[in-house]
Amino acid sequence: MKQSEASILHVCKSVSHITDASQLYHAILHNPTPISLRCNPNKLDIPADLEKVPWSSYGMYLPKRPVFTLDPLFHAGAYYVQEASSMFLEQIVAPLAVSKPLKVLDVCAAPGGKSTHVISLLQRGSLLVANEVIRSRAHILSENIIKWGKSNCVVTNNDPKDFSFLSGFFDIVIVDAPCSGEGMFRKDPAAIEEWSPAHIDLCSKRQMRILSDIWDALAPGGTLIYSTCTFNEIENEKVVQAFIEQTGAICDSVQCLPEWNITEHVYKQAVCYRFFPHKTKGEGFCISVIKKQNGNSYVPPKRIPQAKNITIIPEKNRLHFSNLIQHHQSIVYERQKDVLWSFSKDYRKFLLDIFLHCNIIHAGIPLVHIQGHKLNPMPGLAFANSFNASILPRLDVDLETALRYFKKEALIIEGMSKGWIQLTYKGVSIGFVKNIGNRANNPYPQEWSIKMTLRKDDMWSILT
Ligand code: SAM
């Protein structure tokens, strides 16, 4: 038996008291990985002919894996490629989001699967802070958040303990923890190579540390959602149990329909929802809901914080920027010189406070770069759901032109006036170009651009 198979067998045996180890072993080695994605409800309806992910209103399975990079709508934030089990988060967040706007912190957020899902579930007036401790990953998270197009989002690059200044602030904290990745064995063979019992031990200690560091930021009565993509109990039930013993918190249950084949597993007071690939159509996943009984309530700073590197533009000066977005209940602020963003007025104090304490990668909606008399729209503005599309001429382009835009090529635009033009593909906004006559300059960010060759045979779109 190969070393990789021995590791898989070891993992399967470790959960034989929860599920059938031989069926799990067979599924990891032989069953194909289901391909699934989640639609952005502001940009795309689920195509009617595709199989739905039963526990998510926005999730669907594809019959085979296409080259996602060669669909313009993938780059436009019209959907997010995400494995189906993770979408179960919706069953926990959606009921909480019905009654009021919520403040949510996603502590381990990159590349943004859970964050983009959660912001689709929150009602207007809510706030999402998506945090990622690894800087390069925080930038990928930021790209995905900007493209998802919602306004009240902040992307930070901090250690979980840095949020202690927001004691009792969040209604929901999500810890989708770094783990030993056993649930990804089928999808990612590299996860098998990295696996070892010592790694499980290291991961469980780190998971406890993250939970302990972030606990104070959760409001009394708030909900902590803990998840991993691993099978063993050491990183799941045992972490949850140790944590509730430490804090006096309690686990909550989640309604599951029997046909979903999700395995509820109880260990002492810890309640975990298990996704096994031989039973549920998705990858290995485990999620638990922990309720905070009591603790500190949030006390806002008495004075408006003196934030570094950020200036709120006075009301009278910002008026001509407000027509860039549809709802004007926002402040306009400047962070880098001559680059303006907008953010909800309701969270003005919070914005200043978080700029003071955190390493902010992105906040709100990017608006414009001011160059002398010229206002150049920021590429991210094109993806904002609230962008006021009536202010620029618009051109719907074909599949190949849309992909050339995302490859950052200069385009030739005929029959349109000179100046800024908004491009769309199948009606979904993809970006801006500046038409200078013989060609149109393309300001799409280099770091977001397509690096692969555009092979015509592989070009496609989820919307045919
Ligand atoms: N929630 C993400 C999603 O749905 O797309 C996936 C998160 S992934 C399972 C775990 C993340 O935790 C990784 O991005 C990793 O960089 C981050 N991480 C690693 N060590 C960490 C630590 N000590 N504290 C907080 N986050 C950490």
CATH superfamily of the domain at 3-31 and 82-291: Vaccinia Virus protein VP39
What assembly state would you assign to the polypeptide chains in this entry?
single chain
Our Rg estimate from Cα atoms comes to 23 Å
Overall spatial form:
globular
Average pLDDT metric: 95
Tally of helical segments:
12
Small-molecule binders here are: S-adenosylmethionine
- Quickly give the CATH architecture of the domain at 3-31 and 82-291: 3-Layer(aba) Sandwich
Question: Percent range for helical residues?
Answer: 10-25%
CATH topology of the domain at 3-31 and 82-291: Rossmann fold
| Broad CATH class of the domain at 3-31 and 82-291 | Alpha Beta
Which structural class should the secondary elements be placed in? alpha+beta
- Give the termini separation: 46 Å
The percent range for strand residues is 15-25%
Low-confidence residue ranges: none
Number of strands: 22
Largest sheet: 10 strands, mixed
